[in-house]
Amino acid sequence: MHFHIKTLLLLLLPLLCSTVAATSSSTSTPGASVFPDTYCKTAAITTWEQAERWTQFVNEFYIVKNLTVAYGSFVSADYIQHNPSVGQGAAAAISYLSPFWQTTTITILHLGFDDSIGWIHFRVDGLTPQPLAITDIYRFDPSCIQEHWDVIQMRRRMQPILWRCFDWWSGYSAAV
């Protein structure tokens, strides 16, 4: 039987997330990096190791919502940000997200990892009057996240054709 890495990642996500949560909660200094300072300077790693780090990043960033650990442990300080609303580098992303990240509700819908690229599709409630559908795409190089893209879509009442895109995961009716 042959499994793709993204299939295996989806099967192992609950196990890896619980392991990472236990590891990060036992860290003695709040917000301290889980990995040593040289984490992003390590030699090339295997795709399996990248997938494991991707899963750990997803847990810290989207589930635990610890921006300092997520960016300090898994993101290069000089990573490339393609969202024009956010500055370049990890510090700029933390500064941009900090005011609202803890107050939003995130529901992960899909995620995957393949060939040094991790992606996650999720719903955000509490940031805008209508829910948002967001897809974040990250590129690893070699052992940490080096680049980020996103697609953000708000459910709009004036565009009935888009309602169907939100119905299957939001519980909203097309008759709204």
Structure description:
- The chain is an alpha+beta fold.
- The protein has one domain: Nuclear Transport Factor 2, Chain: A (Roll).
- It is 37% helix and 26% strand.
- It contains five helices and five strands.
- A five-stranded mixed sheet has the order 1-5-4-3-2, sandwiched between helices.
- The protein is globular, with a radius of gyration of 17 Å.
Give the distance, in angstroms, between the N- and C-terminal Cα atoms.
Answer: 45 Å
The residue-averaged pLDDT reads 74
**Element-by-element helix/strand order:** HHHEHEEEEH
Count the domains: 1
Weakly predicted, low-confidence segments: 1-38, 168-176
Helix content: 25-40%
- Top-tier CATH class: Alpha Beta
Counting helices, strands and paired strands, the structural category is alpha+beta
Number of strands: 5
Q: Architecture, CATH level 2?
A: Roll
- The dominant shape is globular
- How is the CATH topology named? Nuclear Transport Factor 2, Chain: A
Largest sheet: 5 strands, mixed
Instruction: Please give the order of strands in the largest beta sheet.
Output: 1-5-4-3-2
Topology:
Blueprint: H1 5-25, H2 47-63, H3 67-74, E1 75-81, H4 90-97, E2 105-114, E3 117-125, E4 132-140, E5 145-154, H5 160-170
Parallel strand pairs: 1-5
Antiparallel strand pairs: 2-3, 3-4, 4-5
Helix pairs in contact: 1-2, 2-3, 3-4
